[in-house]
Amino acid sequence: MTTYKEIFGKPIKVLTGDPAPTPITYTVTVSNPGSGNVYYIDGVQTPTLELYEGNTYNFDYSAATGHPFRFATAADAAGSTEYTTGVSVDSNITTIVVASGAPTLFYYCTNHSGMGGIALTPASPSEYEGQIWYNETEGKFRSVLSTGAWVSSSILNTARIQLSGAVSSPNTASLAFGGDTPPGVTGATEEYNGSGWSNGGSLSTARRLGAGAGTQTAALYFGGNPPGSGATTTEEYGGASWTSGGALPVAKGGLAGCGLQTAALAFGGSPPTRNTTEEYDGSSWTAGGTLSVAFEDAAGAGTQTAGLKFGGRGTPTQTTEKYNGSSWTTSGLMNTGRGYLGGAGIQTAALGYGGMTLPNTYQTATEEYDGTTWTTIPATMGTGIRQFGGTGATASAALAFGGESAGTATLGTTEEYNSSINAFTAAAWASAPSIGTGRYLGGYGITPTNASIIFGGQSTTSESKTEEYNGTSWAENPDMNTARSRINGFGTQTAAVTMGGRQVGVPPNVNMNNTELYDGSSWTNGPSYPLTVRGIGGAGTNAAGLAIAAWTGSPPGFTTCNDWNGSGWTAAEANLNTARGYVSGWGTQSDAGAAGGPPANTDYEEYNGSSWTTKTSLITATGGPSGGGGWFWWNSWCNKSKW
Which stretches in the chain have pLDDT values below 70? Predict the structure, then answer.
C-alpha cells in the first residue's frame, strides 16, 4: 500500500477552516483618518491584501459608490493602466479571479489618488501543499498542489561543456561563461533575458570547470582549468566586461560555489579531490570550514553564510552538507547520487537536476530539498545531460544550458524549470448550447472557450457551415467557399486558416489541397496547400502558422510540415519523426506540440523551430481516420512535458 506521505512527500495536517477560502467578499468603505480619504477593507485602513492565485475575491464598494474600486500594477495606476485580467465589475462589486502568475497589484480609486494599498498575489500557502479539504461555500473539495515542468528554450550562441553561470532573477536574467567547446577552452560570456541569449564581454582568461556566483550584472568566476593542476584565477563581471579579482589561495578545478560577487563561497574541487572551503569578501579569499567529505563536480546553492553542497564525485555521491558561515554539517542524502549536476535555490529550498551516475548514465531526474530531505519530483529534464551550466535563484525556477548528452559531445541547448503552488478546486462539466448544424470531422479552434469557432465537417455530406461561440451561444457566419470535412487549421476566431480536407458526396471521397482564410466575417481562397491530403494538424497564427503531418486514407501518413507566412506555404525547417495523420497540434510556428494520430496514436513530439523531438508518449491513444485534431489556446495550465 502506498501512503499519503509517499505520494505527496508530506504528512497529513489537521486543518482548522479553509486555508485558502474562495470566494471571499470584502466590504469596502471610505473614511478620512486625518490626512484625506482612504479605503477601509472590512474596517481595516488600507491593509496589504493577500489574494491567492486561482481564488475569487469580491470587493463590495456599495457604501462608497463615489470611489470606484479597481486594480493596477502601480499605485494609483501611475505609469500603468487598469489591471483587468480576471476582473469584472457589476453593481458596485469588483470581482477578481486571480490569474496564475499574476503580478503584485495595487488597489486604487479611479476618481481620487492616494486612497489605496497593495494586493499581493502569492501562490497558495506552501505549508498546505498536498493537503485536501472541503470548501463549504462552493460545496467542492480543494487542494494545494505543486506543479512544475522543464521546457526547451533558446540555444546558446556557443555550444560548450563544463561551463558555469550566475542568475539575477528566476530564469529572466542569467549568465553563462567559460567552458570547453571543444577542442579548446572558451572565454565566451552570454546573457539570458528569459527568451534568448546575447553575447557579453569575454573572460580575460578562458577556462573550464570553474565555479560561478553572483548575478547577471555582478558575477564572479573562480578556479577552473587550465592548467591541469587547477587555477587560482578570480574574475568579476560588471554587466559588460570582466576584471581581475583576488586569487584563490589553492589552485583547483571542478569546484562548486554559491553566494554573491562580494560574499561568495568556494568549496571542494581537485586535484587532488579536496574538502577545503574559501570565502570571498569582494577583494580577497580566506579559508573557511572543512567539508566532511572531499569531492569534485558537485552543485552548490545558497549564500556565503547559509550555503549548500550536494552530489558530486566523491564517496558517497548522494552527500549533502550545509554551511553556517564557519562550519559544515551533513544533511539528508540525495535519492540519486550523481556528479556534474546542476543546482538552484537556497539552503532550505533547493533543486538538484541532471548530472551523471556511475558508470556512465546521463540523468534527467530532478529532486527538491526542503532543508532536511530530498524528494524526487515527477518533472524530468527533456534530455539527460552532464557538465552543463545550472543556475536558479529559487527552487521553483531553474535553468540548464550547454553540457553533453549520450551521443552528443557538445550541446547548446537550454532548458527552463518553473513550478508554482496553486489551490485547485474540483472541476465539473456544464452543459452549453448546441451548435446549429450537427456534424463531425470539422475544424475547430478554442481561443479561448468564449471565442471559439467550428467550420466544415460532415453530416450526410460535406458541410461548409461556419459557427462562432461567444461563451453563451452559437451564431452562424458565412459559409466556407468549399464544403469539406476532416479539416483543421490555426489562428483565432477572427483570423483563421484552414487547409486540405476531404469532400464527401459531390464528388465522393476526394482529398483536397484548398486553403481558405477567415477574417471573422467571411472566407477567401488562398494559395493551394503543397499536398492533396486530409487530417492535417495545425499550430500558430494566420500570419505565422504551422501545418503538421497529413493523411490520405491509408498508413503510414506523412511526416511533412509546412510553414504559412500569411500569404503562402513553404517547407518547414524540419518534419515530424513519425509519419501519421489527424494529429492534434498547438503552440506557435516555432514552439509547437503534436500528439496522437494513426498509426502511432500515442506519439508526442515537440518542435523548437528547427527540429522535432520525441517526448513522453500519451497515456491514451488518440486520433484516427474517423477524427481530426484541432488547435488549442496555449495557456499556462498546459504542460507539454508530461501527460
Answer: 1-20, 79-80, 123-146, 168-170, 421-429, 445-449, 506-508, 600, 621-643
Distance between CA atoms of 19 and 409, rounded to whole angstroms?
50
For residue range 405-445, list pLDDT tens digits in order.
Answer: 988 888 899 999 988 766 666 666 677 888 888 887 777 76
Q: What is the pLDDT of residue 295?
A: 94
First to last CA, the chain: 24
Q: Which sign does the torsion angle of CA 442, 446, 449, 452 carry?
A: negative
Q: Which residues contact 227 (CB under 8 A, 6 or more apart)?
A: 251
Cis peptide before 316 (omega within 30 of 0): yes
Q: In what order do the strands lie in the sheet with 307-310?
A: 299-302, 307-310, 320-323, 328-330
Q: What is the pLDDT of residues 356-412, one digit of tens each?
A: 998 889 999 999 998 999 999 889 999 999 999 999 888 888 999 999 998 888 889
Cβ neighbours of residue 623 under 8 Å, at least 6 residues apart? 580, 581, 582, 583, 584, 596, 597, 598, 601, 629
What's the chain's length in residues?
Answer: 643
228 DSSP assignment: T
Q: Which three cell numbers stand for residue 513?
A: 489541397
Q: What is the largest CA-CA distance in the chain?
A: 85
d(CA 551, CA 488): 12
Structural domains of the chain, with CATH: 24-120 (2.60.40.420), 215-418 (2.120.10.80), 443-632 (2.120.10.80)
112, containing H or E segment: none
Give the Cα separation of 154 and 9 in Å (integer). 33
3-state SS assignment for residue 103: coil
Selection from 346, 349, 352 nearest residue 319 by Cα: 352
- 368: which strand partners? 351, 375
Do residues 309 and 256 make contact, with C-beta atoms less than 8 angstroms apart? yes
- Give the Cα separation of 258 and 60 in Å (integer): 48
Helix (H) or strand (E) run with residue 7 in it: helix 4-8
Q: Name beta bridge partners: 523.
A: 518
In a 3-state reduction of DSSP, which class is residue 4? helix
What residues contact 14, with CB distance under 8 A and at least 6 apart?
none
SS3 446: strand
DSSP string, 33-68: SSSS-EEEETTEESPPEE--TT-EEEEE-GGGTTS-
* Apex 375 CA angle, 372 and 377, nearest 5: 150
CA-CA-CA-CA torsion for 107, 111, 112, 113, nearest 10 degrees?
50
What is the C-alpha separation between 165 and 161, in angstroms, rounded? 12
SS (H, E, C) 158-176: CCCECCEEEECCCCCCEEE
Q: Give ∠ CA 191-193-196 in degrees, rounded to 5.
A: 80
Cis status, amide bond into 226, omega within 30 of 0? yes
Cα Rg, the chain, nearest whole Å:
28
CA nearest neighbour of 417 among 396, 432, 402: 396
What was the pLDDT predicted at 633?
Answer: 33
Q: What residues contact residue 84 under an 8 Å CB cut-off, 6+ apart?
A: none
Per-chain mean pLDDT for the chain? 86
Picking from 355, 372, 375, the residue whose alpha carbon sits closest to that of residue 419 is: 375
The cell for 253 is: 578545478
Cα distance between residue 1 and residue 3, in whole Å: 6
